[in-house]
Write a sequence for this structure.
């Protein structure tokens, strides 16, 4: 089955791609840092990744997010 990331998950992962921490992402997108961490945890789970970097690479390989 294709992997689907929610718009918020894509947004958070996109900021990870730009080198932002969970705290920085929370400020940028207007969420609690715990919410950002939850989104990123779901991303890692969906992509079967143990780290944010691994999730980022898999998402890019699958075309789920684009690098700018």
């Amino acid at each position: 089955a294709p992997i689907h990331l929610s718009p918020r998950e894509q947004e958070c992962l996109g900021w990870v791609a730009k080198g932002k921490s969970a705290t920085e992402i929370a400020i940028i997108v207007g969420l609690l840092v715990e919410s950002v961490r939850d989104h990123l945890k779901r991303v890692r789970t969906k992509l079967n990744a143990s780290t944010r970097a691994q999730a980022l690479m898999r998402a890019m390989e699958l075309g789920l997010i684009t690098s700018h």
Observations:
- The radius of gyration is 11 Å.
- The chain has a mean pLDDT of 94.
- The helical segments are 7-17, 22-29, 33-46, 52-61.
- The chain is about 65% helix and 0% strand.
